[in-house]
Design goal:
The complex is a heterotrimer of chains A (304), B (248) and C (335). The longest helix of chain A has 31 residues, at 2-32. Chain A is built from 13 helices and two strands. Chain A has 304 residues and is mainly alpha-helical. Helix content of chain A is 74%, strand content 2%. Chain B is an alpha/beta fold and 248 residues long. Chain B is 38% helix and 25% strand. Chain B is globular, with a radius of gyration of 18 Å. By secondary structure, chain C is an all-alpha fold. In chain C, helix 3 (38-63) packs across helix 12 (254-267) and helix 4 packs antiparallel against helix 5 (93-115). The radius of gyration of chain C is 20 Å and the shape is globular. Classes of the chains: A mainly alpha (304), B alpha/beta (248), C mainly alpha (335).
């Protein structure tokens, strides 16, 4: 029973961080209808930014968030004005392959600069500490902090989008760009802003993630696919959708633990042989596929 | 013998009533015009008949087949073809290739499809446009091509949706000639949605009028033009009252 | 019979094109007789392989306009079928290759049916998802060697073995793949003139209109997808016999899928020569970049950085690829 509860809890924790990561993707999609295949690479950039800033300055890793956010924001804006802007004029093939090119480009650029080895954060006040929460659940302090900060960041973004003028302008453009233009809202500016916010949020998620997940240049794709699954489930373009879907997907990644629980419960030999741990992301990809075929709108989305 | 029978066709989009209890029938080789103010439900009616939308209720019988439940490509294969009102020309297919797509519905052979397409181009007097791609052509020619492609499927009946929209008078003349050719020479039954009155009234054997989703009139052009319900739908109640003497 | 005529009939191409194509074809045939390095030979074989991959992709991705980024899974199906059948039961290539195609086609129907309910980028992401799922399964499946993969050890056989496609010199492999290459061209030439080819192009332009002309769009896409997977599977089987050492990470990765799509996209999706042009540029580029910049550069991925930059450039500037530019220029001259 302990395994089940702790797996579920771990799933929720990681889910909150994953939700944060997927938030950027859903915002960009909502405003511009373009899918960013390089999304995982943005995450990776955020992770490296957090890692290197913390290592270079000896700063407390969790405080590197603002720096990562700024870096991500700039990255998003540069990508938009330097590249995306041109690609959206073309047919969809071009858009797909364009952001793919960006993905390959960023990934190998990182390989060039940072080398292929895994790196992780090893210092900071929370490393190595954990809290016992009863029912056998032991939560590492870093994960707890990351989850908590994710939720806060989510809430901030939600407030910005719903309560500020600029946030509403963003929503207006995503609902009807032409109509928004008639009201004086520049689509170009909103697009750039979407990419900026998208980039900023995902790098924050990266800076949080690197506290308990090591980074290497190749991890982008996995997270891009996870982000897609989250956005598909939550509904393309929906911010609350991204949050709840993130939790669900987080739990999916804990399937090995849940499987162990059921193996224990039902005691079938064959169950122990299934290499669930190696397959755990496969469930995420399958989830994406099934969702898109069965309920393309996702939980809260309006776009299909 | 009725080629097309529509019985009590009703189509709701959620709460919006697009077509309500519409019934009519068409004989072979009739040319029927479908008119009515904007939003009356004309295109929706076409879409329902052609199998694009499932009906909320009602029945459609075409050439003795019940086509109510059939999908759009199945309806086309039974010999009921259609064109679209808005058609954004894209892609790199030439005129002859576009028409061949239609012809391929009846044959697997490229040479046969090509031969038929070329015959149609000759009949429509479009032969010199054969190798242009659609986006290079003026709107009137594009429309001719889409009609030609639909005719390529060798249909018994053709639904034309506002083919004259946006055309100047001489282009309208050309389209009318094409429609006459389809109707008389190729013996295809035609139903057309039109706003251009001189086209519809001149060419139709019969006219059906829709307003707010319902059929409000069905008769020959002269009678329709004087029908107070029809005039009211277009020009309003006041006009009808003021001109009551001229109307039957 | 008309199908055969269609396959052999290139008359709708301008004479200049056919002369150039003929010349290149001739060069390809005599290439092994010319002085060349072993490295050049390997590059040429890769070029032919990727041209074929690209041609297969082009049917559904180019003519059909459905951008498929999950082709690598079929490379895997072809390669592993051939490898497993050879290693375990000594089944020759010419038998295992068609079997691989059967598996590939069956799998393509299974996932194609739900897959083609999606469109655009949702479709593309779904193709990636399915490819990754299959790769993950192969990586834990001991029957196909799991992550270690399989190795066809040539010592067991006596080269040159035409049945099992085991040769010592690359020249044999070259002519085998060249044969497939020419057959592939003939097939695509038939395809683009066939009813299915026309249906696909019509679907790419406008699905609703296509349906109104009697085309069962869903089914047409699935059929074409099966054709594309067959191409890829055949070359995958060849790959197993040529490289002899296959593992899921190499043969079924996303990089392979992207490369395949890229061949056609760069050269001109939706045209007969496009994938060949694309492969003709990208494969030598990749090989020689690695060679000049040194193997170390390959490790740090400079070749891929340039690749990425090229993809970005092409997609931003001329999404229709090189052949698209050629056609545009020709059209303008004609008008």
């Amino acid at each position: 029973m302990d395994i089940l509860v702790s797996s579920l809890f771990a799933g929720l924790l990681i889910g909150m961080v994953l939700a944060m990561m997927a938030l950027g993707l859903t915002i960009i999609f909502g405003v511009m209808d373009i899918v960013n295949f390089a999304h995982g690479e943005f995450l990776m950039v955020g992770m490296y930014t957090g890692l290197l800033t913390a290592q270079a300055t000896g700063m407390e890793p969790l405080l590197t968030l603002p720096i990562a956010a700024v870096a991500g924001f700039l990255l998003g804006i540069i990508c938009y004005f330097g590249f995306i802007k041109f690609v959206i004029r073309g047919p969809m093939v071009a858009q797909l392959l364009g952001t793919f090119g960006l993905m390959i480009f960023l990934r190998n650029l990182a390989l060039l600069f940072f080398g292929a080895e895994d790196r992780a954060i090893h210092h900071g006040i929370l490393v190595g500490k954990s809290f016992e929460l009863g029912m056998g659940v032991i939560a590492p302090a870093t994960k707890l902090a990351a989850a908590a900060l994710s939720v806060i960041a989510f809430w901030v973004v939600w407030m910005v989008i719903n309560r500020t003028k600029i946030g509403k302008a963003l929503t207006a453009t995503s609902l009807n760009a032409q109509g928004a233009r008639y009201m004086g809202i520049s689509t170009e500016r909103m697009n750039a802003l979407a990419w900026g916010i998208g980039g900023g949020t995902v790098t924050i998620a990266g800076a949080l993630l690197v506290n308990f997940w090591s980074v290497n240049p190749f991890m982008g794709l996995l997270f891009t696919m996870i982000a897609f699954a989250i956005v598909a489930l939550g509904g393309f373009g929906s911010v609350p959708g991204a949050f709840f879907a993130g939790l669900v997907v987080g739990i999916i990644t804990e399937i090995p633990g849940i499987w162990d629980f059921f193996t224990f419960l039902f005691n079938f030999d064959w169950m122990a042989d299934v290499p669930m741990t190696s397959l755990k992301y496969m469930w995420v990809y399958l989830a994406y596929f099934v969702i898109m075929v069965v309920r393309p709108r996702g939980l809260f989305g309006w776009k299909r | 013998m009725a080629l097309l029978e529509v019985h009590n066709l009703t189509k709701y989009f959620g709460g919006l009533k697009a077509n309500e209890d519409i019934s009519f029938s068409m004989k072979e080789e009739e040319l029927v015009g479908l008119i009515g103010p904007n939003g009356a439900g004309k295109t929706t009616l076409f879409n329902c008949i052609a199998g694009l939308h499932p009906l909320t209720s009602g029945k459609i019988i075409f050439n003795r087949h019940d086509i109510t439940e059939l999908k759009d490509y199945e309806v086309a294969r039974l010999g009921l073809a259609r064109t679209f009102q808005i058609y954004i020309a894209s892609g790199d297919m030439t005129v002859v290739e576009n028409i061949m797509v239609g012809c391929f519905m009846r044959t697997r052979s490229r040479s046969q499809a090509k031969a038929r397409a070329e015959q149609i181009m000759k009949d429509f007097k479009m032969h010199d446009l054969s190798d242009y791609i659609l986006s290079e052509l003026p709107v009137a020619s594009q429309k001719q091509v889409t009609i030609a492609a639909a005719v390529g499927t060798d249909p018994k009946m053709l639904l034309l949706d506002e083919v004259a929209a946006g055309l100047n008078p001489s282009e309208i003349e050309e389209i009318m000639a094409t429609i006459r050719h389809i109707h008389h020479k190729m013996e295809i039954t035609v139903m057309l949605i039109e706003h251009v009155m001189e086209l519809v009234m001149n060419i139709s054997d019969r006219v059906i009028v829709l307003d707010s989703g319902q059929k409000i009139a069905d008769g020959n052009p002269e009678t329709i033009a004087k029908d107070p319900n029809v005039v009211k739908a277009y020009l309003g109640e006041r006009y009808v009252q003021e001109h009551a003497a001229e109307l039957t | 019979m008309e199908a055969l005529k269609n396959a052999l009939d290139f008359s709708d191409f301008p004479r200049l094109d056919m002369i150039i194509a003929g010349a290149i074809g001739g060069l390809l045939v005599i290439f092994p007789a010319t002085p060349h390095s072993a490295f050049a030979m390997v590059t040429m074989i890769q070029f032919l392989m990727f041209s074929l991959y690209g041609m297969g992709w082009n049917t559904i991705g180019g003519y059909g306009g459905q951008v498929d980024l999950g082709k690598a899974q079929y490379v895997g199906i072809g390669a592993f079928t051939t490898a497993v059948l050879m290693i375990r039961w000594d089944i020759p290539f010419w038998v295992s290759m068609p079997i691989g195609v059967c598996f590939a086609v069956v799998w393509s129907f299974i996932i194609g049916y739900p897959l083609f309910r999606l469109k655009g980028h949702y479709f593309a992401i779904a193709t990636i998802a399915t490819s990754l799922v299959l790769k993950d399964i192969f990586e834990v499946w001991d029957f196909v060697g799991a992550a270690r993969g399989l190795e066809i050890s040539p010592i067991k056989y006596i080269p040159p073995d035409f049945l099992r496609l085991i040769f010592r010199e690359d020249i044999y492999y070259y002519y085998v793949i060249l044969g497939f290459f020419f057959l592939g061209i003939l097939y695509v030439n038939w395809f683009r003139k066939s009813r299915l080819g026309f249906q696909l192009r019509s679907i790419r332009d406008n699905e609703e209109v296509s349906k109104s002309l009697g085309i069962n769009v869903h089914w047409a896409k699935i059929k074409t997808y099966a054709i594309a997977t067959s191409f890829v599977s055949v070359v995958g089987s060849f790959h197993a016999c040529y490289i002899k050492n296959i593992e899921p990470e190499d043969t079924m990765s996303l990089e392979i899928s992207i490369l395949i799509a890229l061949m056609a996209m760069l050269g001109g999706a939706g045209s007969l020569w496009g994938p060949i042009i694309g492969a003709g540029i990208l494969i030598p580029l990749k090989s020689y970049l690695k060679e000049w910049l040194g193997a170390r550069a390959g490790l740090i991925g400079i070749d891929l950085i340039i690749y990425g930059a090229i993809i970005m450039l092409v997609s931003a500037v001329e999404p229709r690829g090189i052949w698209g530019i050629v056609e545009k220029v020709r059209r303008r001259k004609r008008n």
